[in-house]
Amino acid sequence: MKNVFIFYLCWLSLPAFSSDSTESDPHSSALGRIQALSESFPNPSALSFYQVPAAGISVMNHFEIKELNTLSGYVIFPNKWLDSGFRMSSSGIEDYRKWLIQGGFSKKIHPKLSIGAILHYEKISSAGDEEIDPVVGFDIGLTFQMNPHFRWALLVKNAADNSKENTTSIHAGVDYSISTACDFLLEGGAGIDGSTRFSAGINYELADRFYIRTGLYSEPLTPTFGLAVARGNLILDISCDKHASLGYSTGIGLSYQF
User: Fold this and answer.
1) What dihedral do alpha carbons 257, 29, 25, 100 form, nearest 10°?
2) Residue 63: its H or E element
3) Which residues, other chains included, contact 99 with Cβ-Cβ below 8 Å and sequence gap of 6+?
């Protein structure tokens, strides 16, 4: 019971407008915890710009607290009918664990424009007597790839669900290639409860398929950093950020494109 109480306090300490702890991944976290501009989840419309199937796993630790470790895995299946992806993540401890299952679908309605939706099922298992109802809902997204140098994305999170705690929020961002080796990302978001969020990131290819990533996000202003190394079809991602009050969050991920 003590562990359940500790985990609950840790859960409340998460920033109110940051990515949900079960949705974070090292790539997005290193670039200022972007959401609309993410390359797969949480923005489903990005699935239509994958050329080949992909799969990956990651482990995220929040604020150096083991009770907030998140383990996740995903698969992506681009195809000519309906591009799709599946992601499952788990965080918490044995007595209090949160599961998130997401199924994403996307379709190009124009060679440069795609629309997608993610259905999500969230379940908390607790050793206590209280029965916690699962949360079911969906998010929707748009991605516009104007040319190889400019991308615009929109994401509506929690467009509808059966929870009174999840707030609907809208995120929009642009990704601009400054050069063949450097991308600049800028994103803003607002919730219907009046909360706001801004993120910015830079992805720089320092050497052949070796990337340095840095960024920041607001509420509170927090710097982020990351590295990525690609060898063949395998990509290793590492991320780190330091919250002013709560400390370090780190992540490591491994993905493969078939």
Assistant:
1) -150
2) none
3) 22, 88, 89, 90, 122, 123, 124, 125
**Radius of gyration of the chain, Cα coordinates, nearest whole angstrom:** 18
Convert the pLDDT of each residue in 147-205 to its tens digit.
Answer: 999 999 999 998 887 676 778 899 999 999 999 999 999 999 999 888 899 999 999 99
Measured distance CA(214)–CA(34) in Å, rounded: 12
Gap between the Cα atoms of 100 and 94, Å rounded: 16
Cross-strand bridge partners of residue 247: 243
Terminal C-alpha separation, the chain: 44
Q: Name the residue among 114, 116, 183 with its Cα closest to residue 148.
A: 183
Residue 219's alpha-carbon distances to 68, 74, 115, 245, in angstroms, are: 20, 29, 29, 12
**Count of Cβ atoms closer than 10 Å to residue 232 Cβ:** 8
Integer CA distances (angstroms), 175 to 25, 37, 62, 106, in order: 18, 7, 27, 20
Beta-strand relationship, 182-191 and 113-126: unpaired
Predicted TM-score of the model (pTM)? 0.87
Q: Would you say the C-alpha torsion 186, 28, 165, 221 has a positive or negative sign?
A: negative
Q: CA-to-CA distance for 158 and 166, rounded, in angstroms?
A: 7
